[in-house]
């Protein structure tokens, strides 16, 4: 039985509005998880429409930054809509990560190296790419969105799942096929295991 306290944090970062493939897919992920867990408490932030300030000295430890971190730490599930821009992730999404990767809160350094402190969450990233950058394609060496997002989440103890639609700029037929394949992936997503109390 689902806990009414199971929380999902949904982020979008595309500037393309309703034309965005990543927004479409992140919404489909949330719909799938809500069907599996009707009691979900969902919080949403549009990082393109409501961007966070980039990190400057005055931006540390502000009430807004603390509230943002608390919201992330309270979430059981993280769903991110992320387009690939110029081989990387949008700066709006990077700014969010800069507020979340905080020493002593989401990671710490030990004698054995860095240790993530935000484990136990499930993260699903809906990633869209205009071209072809997956393994085996000539552009694979220029893929720095999935690798960057995966690296940052992994650093704080979260192993994300990726739902990828690529080649969406290669005409309507390829776009439709890529989105359909991603939707088929989303339809197979399993229920979320609740975090156990420490």
Major sheet size, sense and barrel closure: 5 strands, parallel
What coarse outline follows from CA principal-axis ratios?
Answer: globular
H/E series, N to C?
A: EHEHEHEEEHEH
Q: Count all strands and give the number.
A: 7
Given helix and strand content, the structural type is: alpha/beta
Low-confidence runs: none
| β-strand amount | 15-25%
Strand order of the largest sheet: 2-1-3-6-7
Write down the Rg. 17 Å
Instruction: Estimate the mean pLDDT confidence.
Output: 92
The rounded distance between the terminal residues' Cα atoms is 20 Å
**Multimeric status of the protein:** single chain
Percent of residues in helices comes to 25-40%
- In DSSP terms (H or I, runs of 4 or more residues), the helix count works out at 5
Features:
globular; 198 residues; 5 helices; alpha/beta; 5-stranded parallel β-sheet; 7 strands; two-stranded antiparallel sheet
